[in-house]
Amino acid sequence: MTSSDSTITESIEKIEKKRNLSSPELPNSFDLPSAAIPQNPLLDSSRAENAYKGPLEIPFKWGFFSKLPANARAENFSLEAFSVISLVHILAFSYAIPTFSWSGLAWMIALSFVAGCFGVTAGYHRLLTHRSFKAHPAVRNFFTFCAAISLESGPIRWVATHRLHHSQSDQPNDPHSPTVNFLWAHVLWNFFTHPDLKTPEQLRRLALDIADDPVMQWFEQNFFGVYLGSLAALYVGGYATGGPTLALSWLVWGGLVRTVWTWHITWLVNSATHVWGYRNYRTPEGSRNLWWVALVTFGEGWHNNHHADQRAARNGHRWFEFDITYALIKLLSTVGLVWDIAPVSKSLVPEGQPVGQHANPYRASKEPIAI
Ligand SMILES: [Zn+2]
Ligand SMILES: [Zn+2]
């Protein structure tokens, strides 16, 4: 390393330190079970140049008849997850056409935004998992409520799973990599509990900063009840507005069809954006930017940008990479409900450029895990 490299490294470290100090009430690192989660060698910047063999190309394969990973053992099978996901799909597909109404469709679109953008994307993902910004407790709790009605698990399990994905992306221990096959990354992984995400203690170690928060613990225990409550509210609202036929329509469209839609758009980020699309940055996994996934997921489809800078609140980095969640975060900051929005790092490595030109090849390497 030359003296100019070390000067750059020092100044980057100063910037990183300053950014970390902006969230003093949160820990800067997590007590990871290092034996259970082997470090990806590409996250070690000193070895990155030798280790980087160009973008990881993950071939698309459905995987109907291919071998499932070692995690997919009978003792890890979750009958609960399998039953709920199957039942919601069966009910939604069986009743969608006979119960269609325009107001039901309007509820479906509105609640997709509430559960998907406010809840999963802004709440579970950018706020709770990556701490990309700080929020007023009312906003944080409201986002968590919105995410609970997406029926994608409670906040602690969601955060732990996603942090494991970032630390093990497209490696054998990744909870949902399309290196296994597309169907596994998209949906099948939900039916098996990952061995590193089985016990409350394992989840806690990956979500230390939220695991002791009583509100988060409450949602962790009660998210399914909150979801059922949202279905009941739709039914009652529909009944009061237009009787039993409209009640059923609002329940099916605002509840079940919307749940199926939100599940699949979330899962596309795990499956499609590690297979198809373009890459702006060198990252040690197969993440890609895919415009149509970005469009339906409120900006989450700019997934290579996100893997390159996991802390940044903004996933769309180029002018055409529209990121509606970032627009929401900026809007809330203008009225003082959110603040300390993490900017995009200046030290990302564009795809195709040698790592040696940059002091900090992978920003994630400066941090023990994606936070
Ligand atoms: Zn990913
Ligand atoms: Zn993430």
Task: Walk me through the structure.
Helix 3 crosses helix 10 (214-271), helix 4 packs across helix 10 and helix 5 (137-148) packs across helix 10 (214-271). The protein has one domain (37-44, 64-339). It has helices spanning 3-21, 45-51, 79-95, 102-129, 137-148, 155-167, 182-186, 200-206, 208-211, 214-271, 291-296, 303-308, 324-334, and strands at residues 134-135, 338-339. The protein contains 13 helices and two strands, in the order H-H-H-H-E-H-H-H-H-H-H-H-H-H-E. It has a two-stranded antiparallel ribbon with strand order 1-2. The protein is an all-alpha fold. Bound molecules: zinc ion (ZN) (2 copies). One zinc ion (ZN) binds at residues 125, 129-130, 162, 166, 306, 310.
| Number of spatially distinct domains | 1
Record the strand order, biggest sheet: 1-2
The radius of gyration is 21 Å
- The fraction of residues assigned to DSSP E strands is under 5%
Which ligands appear in the coordinates? Answer: zinc ion
Distance between the termini: 27 Å
If helices are DSSP runs of H or I spanning 4 or more residues, what is the number of helices? 13
Shape: globular
The arrangement of helices and strands along the chain is HHHHEHHHHHHHHHE
Q: What's the story with the biggest beta sheet? A: 2 strands, antiparallel
- What's the pLDDT, averaged over the residues? 85
Instruction: Please give the share of residues in helix.
Output: 40-55%
Would you identify the regions where 5 or more consecutive residues have pLDDT less than 50? 1-9, 11-45, 356-371
Number of DSSP strand runs: 2
Summing up helix and strand content along with how strands pair, one would put the structural category as mainly alpha
